[in-house]
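Reopening this one. Same input as before:
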Amino acid sequence: MVTTATRNRWPVLALFVAAVAAVAVVGSLAATDSGAEYLALERPAWAPPRWLFGPAWTVLYLLIALSGWLVWLARGWSPAFTVYAVQLALNAVWTPLFFAAGQYGLAFAEIVILWAAIVANIVVFWRVRRAAALLLVPYLLWVTYAAALNYAIWQLN
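Same output, byte for byte:
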């Protein structure tokens, strides 16, 4: 028997990838000179090289999209996607705050809220599909690291 979820699974996966790609595009458009800006900042010794951000975020965004898709496959559109949408919106806001506006303190406050939203997203997804929640753990770890880096840069600059 072919269900609606089975029939629509690939277009919906494309929708999740497109939504997450839109978040990435907002960030990249808001910070076109972010690489040069990053190099010009006083950074802690443990700051990653500039080239690492693109590959890291590409993998993380794919995991975020896949996570949402897995929950959709399990439950369809549900209230769990409210938290998912909130964390995506918060993700989109951080780069413009940090790079375009140079508001390191405000960006730090925002990334703390983003971190909490990711934790909430993991909790909500865990109740629906554990694999989907686990796919968000690398994202949480990266944002934890990014928050520490944001804080250090704020203090150094």
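So the earlier flakiness isn't reproducible anymore. For the record, Residues 4-156 form a domain with the Ferritin fold (CATH 1.20.1260.100).
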